[in-house]
Design brief:
This is Iron complex outermembrane receptor protein. One of its GO terms (cellular component) is cell outer membrane. GO terms for molecular function: siderophore uptake transmembrane transporter activity. It is a multi-pass membrane protein. This protein is mainly beta and 743 residues long. It has a single domain, classed as Maltoporin, Chain A, CATH 2.40.170. It is 5% helix and 50% strand. Helix 2 packs across helix 3.
Length: 743
């Protein structure tokens, strides 16, 4: 089940370095708190603190293994599972790319055991697909901007905590077999998955090894047509995935432990279909026919390794130290028609040059934190830490070897301190701290592509511009603070303020420079994004009720917006952005034993300064590329003995976009035109899931889009409103039959 917890500013900074800490070790210092069923103590490892969730004044949701597996069976991925359960999270695009998917109107930071999966210097938007959900024990969601996690996560954190060490001596494990089919059981719509995990424990030593393989067929919409493919950005349909996982641990004494965790995830497109453009005017969505996709199919590969040492009684406190290495290789597919941006008359005067790009990124990082009660003043808990990150990213064109985004080096050094003061026996708490962020970016001299300046109708413009590289540096002291009042156990209110930090998509910015003579040492568009998050919340967890109401508002003076050119390539604009929202969640145990009902609601309003000469006043709605629709979630769960079931409905509410936003017109760059923003009509989707546990394992059947609703997904309906090639329908009714067994 999903456990709602409210962590704090103290928690948020300290990413999941404690993810590998044994639960018994946490319990030595944590003030116990039970979940809604009073069965287990809640430990939020993303908080990197042993303080209980009710000591922290921000919003956190925990999706446990049972609910996570249920949602993955319904929708197919961890990202979809999070989106289904979180009203303020955008509906997913059902593609490999998560571009435009936001949490509270800003980009979330995806992490695995605290290791960032994003590539901030050139966001390829593949960070939601870096590990198979079979190896994820739970997902911790941290809402809102906060610099304490380091770079990224201005909308929040989606931290995937991998399976823990085995608790019993000897061999144990789990296997999964799963099959998926569209509503009419077409042969090319059939998919399947097989996964296994073997764990072994002997005394102080333990080891876990696992593998998962998945083959996905094509998707069909509610009218029985193939869903169109985005060959460039990548697809999850018509693809194969191989995911490997390993964990080796050793207990050092009674309180110390060392863990080595490694994973590898690779998704490859099949390249067996090509897109057939739709027609927005008639409502006909993009479809697909069999055919050989040009070039190499889109693919994504992520490899990660982390070494963590924890000691829960080092000098009377809790120490966590981690070093990690992560690298990604994201290949983008090619289009049948030559991409105008890639043309260069020097290479092909006929301007029919075929090319495609790939991102390569490497990260090396370290995180240290030490937490303990202050001697002689036990009501005050203090945390000191230091984080370091080095990231190197580039984007190249693989057919011709040209550089689209020059190699970019990012370095961050960040000491931080947090404090949490308990007063009046815990009825009042004060939390706060600061993080000093010191960032350096290095980019050598380079030339933009020949056609970067702009592309006139049917003709590529000759000649890129020379850009002088540089080593811009940025530093800032980012604060957070909050207060929690809990007059009665289970009823509390909190208010908080936190500043978040990230860099814009530097790759999009540097590759799109049009003016000769730019010097990156003085180019303000690559300066960091500093956002803030103010939040007020009330929470009730008593008896059959589990509810919360949260109001938040955030702003950034130089935020990041994705604005589409007429060619379909997205550029970055730096403008003031303001977002505010209301989140309401209520769960209740009904009089029928085993029956629960829940409702969630999110309202988001985002605007930005669209003036050609910014005046600091927001005047235009954020469009569907940059903010999610309002939503209502309804769900009912039932469990009795070996049987369990869930029905959930998501109401994506209609939305109108107003303002004076301006498109970047490639054909006439000196006279920008008003951007036409599609209004969103809304749609309703219902899913169902049943499971029966036998002595030989559990059998489950899930149905996505139970009523076979025909709809255009939110992203397609609101992005690129003049492009008929990206007018995608959502997936129609889909069945998934699964069997899993634990031993």
């Amino acid at each position: 089940m999903a456990v709602r917890a409210r962590p704090s500013l103290l928690s948020l900074p300290l990413l999941t370095l404690a993810a590998t800490l044994p639960q018994v070790a946490h319990a030595q210092q944590a003030e116990p708190r039970k979940d809604a069923d009073a069965s287990e103590e809640i430990i939020v490892t993303a908080a990197r603190t042993v303080l209980p969730p009710n000591a922290l004044p921000l919003t956190i949701d925990v999706i446990d293994k049972q609910r996570l597996d249920q949602q993955i069976a319904i929708s197919g991925s961890v990202t979809d599972a999070v989106a289904n359960l979180t009203p303020s999270f955008s509906p997913t695009r059902q593609k490999l790319s998560g571009a435009g998917e936001t949490l509270r109107g800003r980009s979330p930071l995806y992490a695995i055991n605290g290791i960032p999966q994003s590539t901030p210097m050139r966001d390829g938007s593949r960070d939601g697909f870096t590990i198979d959900g079979f190896f994820v024990d739970r997902v911790e969601l941290i809402y809102g901007s906060n610099a304490l996690q380091g770079i990224g996560g201005t909308g929040g954190i989606v931290n995937q905590v991998t399976v823990g060490a085995p608790k019993t001596e000897g061999i144990s494990g789990r296997v999964l077999l799963q099959g998926t089919a569209d509503n009419d059981f077409r042969s090319d719509g059939i998919g399947g998955k097989a996964a296994g995990l073997v764990q072994w424990k002997s005394g102080r030593f333990d080891a876990s090894f696992g593998a998962a393989y998945e083959k996905r067929g094509v998707f069909y919409d509610g009218d029985g047509r193939r869903v169109g493919l985005n060959l460039t950005q990548g697809e999850t349909q018509d693809s194969t995935t191989v995911s490997l996982f390993s964990r080796i641990g050793y207990q050092l004494g009674d309180t110390g432990r060392i863990d080595l965790i490694a994973s590898r995830f690779e998704l490859k497109g099949g390249g067996n279909y090509v897109a057939v453009p739709g027609n927005r005017a008639t409502g006909l969505p993009t479809s697909a026919i069999r055919g050989d996709a040009p070039g190499k199919p889109a693919a994504s590969r992520t490899e990660s390794v982390a070494l963590t040492y924890t000691d829960t009684a080092l000098g009377g406190g809790n120490f966590v130290g981690q070093i990690f290495f992560n690298r990604t290789h994201d290949r983008f597919g090619g289009e049948i028609a030559p991409i105008a941006t890639f043309q260069d008359p020097r290479l092909d005067p006929a301007e029919k040059l075929f090319d495609q790009s790939e991102n390569r990124s490497r990260k090396l990082g370290a995180k240290l934190s030490y937490e303990r009660a202050v001697p002689g003043f036990e009501a005050l808990t203090a945390t000191l830490g230091f984080d370091a990150l080095i990231d190197k990213t580039e984007q190249r064109l693989i057919a011709t070897g040209r550089v689209w985004v020059p190699p970019s080096d990012f370095r961050s050094l960040a000491p931080f301190a947090q404090a949490n003061l308990k007063l009046f026996g815990g009825k009042l708490r004060l939390a706060g701290g600061a993080r000093y962020e010191n960032v350096a970016i290095r980019i050598d001299d380079y030339h933009t592509l020949a056609s970067t300046t702009y592309v006139a109708p049917n003709k590529a413009t000759y000649g890129g511009v020379a850009v002088a590289g540089g080593k811009p540096k940025f530093e800032d002291l980012l604060f957070n603070g909050g207060v929690i009042v809990e007059p009665v156990a289970g009823i509390r209110a909190y208010a908080s303020y936190a500043e978040g930090f990230t860099v814009p998509d530097v790759g999009r910015i540097t590759r799109a420079i049009k003016v000769p003579g730019v010097d990156l040492d003085h180019y303000l568009d690559i300066s960091p994004i500093v956002s803030n998050n103010r939040e007020i919340g009330v929470e009730v967890k008593r008896g059959p009720l589990d509810g919360s109401v949260t109001y938040f508002w955030s702003s950034s003076d130089k935020g990041q917006l994705l604005i589409a050119r007429a060619s379909g390539i997205f550029d970055v604009q730096r403008q003031r952005v303001e977002i505010q929202g209301l989140e309401v969640n209520l769960g209740v145990k009904l009089p029928v034993p085993g029956l629960k009902a829940s409702i969630g609601y999110a309202h988001l309003n985002g605007r930005y300064d669209a003036d050609a000469v910014p005046d600091g006043k927001v005047d235009t709605d954020l469009d569907g590329t940059n903010i999610s629709p309002d939503r209502i979630n309804l769900a009912a769960d039932y469990a009795s003995g070996p049987f369990s079931a869930r029905v959930q409905t998501q109401f994506y509410l209609s939305r109108r976009f107003d303002g004076k936003a301006r498109a970047i017109d490639d054909a006439n760059p000196l006279h920008p035109q008003k951007l036409f923003m599609n209004d969103f009509g809304g749609y309703v989707l219902t899913d169902a899931y049943v499971r029966y546990q036998t002595r030989l394992g559990g059998l489950s059947l899930s149905v996505t889009n139970l009523f076979d609703k025909m709809y255009i997904d939110y992203s397609s309906d609101t992005r690129l409103p003049n492009d008929n090639t990206v007018f995608y329908a959502g997936r129609g009714r889909t069945f998934t039959l699964g069997w899993d067994y634990r031993f």
